[in-house]
Amino acid sequence: MGELARIKRNGLCHGCGACATAVGGDKIKMSMTSAGYLRPEEQQPLATADEEIVQKVCSGAELQHLPSTEVSYDRSWGPIVSLETGFSTDADVRYLGSSGGVISAIAIHLLETRAVDFILHTSADPNDPVGNITRPSTTRAEIIEAAGSRYAPSAPLADLEAYLSRERTFAFIGKPCDVAALRRMARSDPRIDRLIPFKISFFCAGVPSRKGALAVVEKLGVEQNELVKFSYRGRGWPGWTRATRRDGSEEKMDYNSSWGYILSPRVQFRCKICPDGTGEFADITCADAWYSEDGYPDFTERDGRSLIMARTPSGRALLDTIRQAGALSCESLPIADIRKMQPHQYNRKRAVFVRLLAMRFKAFSTPKYRGLSLLALALQSSPVWLLRNFLGTYLRLRKSESL
Fold this sequence. Notes:
This protein is of the alpha+beta class. It has a domain at about 75-210 and about 265-340: Aspartate Aminotransferase, domain 2 (3-Layer(aba) Sandwich), CATH 3.40.640. The protein is about 35% helix and about 20% strand. The protein has an 8-stranded mixed sheet.
């Protein structure tokens, strides 16, 4: 079995598209599966050299932090140079973004100061309201148009070669797995670090199936052939999921109902064993800085607030520049407070070690993780809780016909 086939067979594929760019679009293309996830499909048999390239770039098969003396590493949250909460001082950006609009504010600053020529990011597909496309943006208006979360499959690295070949600088905004794969690709392609000086990510709870979004649309009572616009979040914090018909009428659902009850149960298996839901390989990572009620995030609608984490010195320098320009309002945050805002991310990384053990008990290949403190985190956790996670994964694998 070739490397690509092994990755897919064992449920290790994120669907980022890195392999398609690294090997070549004539050999690998990303396709939507019947289960509603993006996966690489061979267009012709892969040579041994191609399979080796897949192994080198795939963040689904392997993740590794190299030792660093310049950045401290927190076992739960990864490399941290600075930690803050804040929001965009542009009221429109703050309102339309998923939380405080900070990622949009960063992108706008980079464009308006000409630090980069364009931003490569994910946006709604104009021909498929629940779907995504990867696009370059060069103006504030384009960044704002694409603001907000997109809880559906995306493969932003699948066409990366088309943008690298322009020989113009750009910032990349993507899921943690996308950025991790981009770092792996950079080891053998020097153009990536030269042309992409800033790699930006966000906390990610997983990629739901396309079927999840369609289930939301159905629950809202909107016919698919009448749907012209679908926004997962934004226009407030956390914002409503909104489906707009051709006649302009709109149906909406609160965040807890759409994400909590429909989308999150449809998250792909690979995300359940991901130790990097927090963008550890990015320069800057942002997240919802949820207020807490009884130990759980409070989803009451209010003005947006982002958690802002610089993971590299260059990311910290960029944030300092944007703050000094008056585009961000920020205040420092103690590391211990992240757990109150993001309890799911805190627990998920602790569960990965025993979930991988369950995979091995069922004779599945597992990802290779190095430098992520997974064993240490497991040893700090409740044995009963770990056993529940082990059994939950084992039973899921037993019932699954495919991953």
